[in-house]
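Tutorial, part two.
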Amino acid sequence: MCTPALAASQPRISLMAISELRDVLTALELGQGPTAVAGLMAIDPESWQAIEQRLAAVGGDLRTVLQAASVGAPVLPHLT
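Running the prediction step on this input gives:
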């Protein structure tokens, strides 16, 4: 269990970044590369750090997730 001090020191994913990431994955599935790139660029640095940490915790990385989404494959198949 995280203590309040530990939780406060870890980066958090903003609600805006969650929405942007969802839109990026959708754009990739639809073959809309420029829209996906624009969405990725809109994500703030703290959220990026938190996203990368969470993906690493489940054995993934952003490149793998984006590549899977672009071909309509399961994003992290070992978790399904």
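The helical segments are 4-9, 15-29, 33-41, 45-57, 62-70. In part three we will examine how such features are distributed along the chain.
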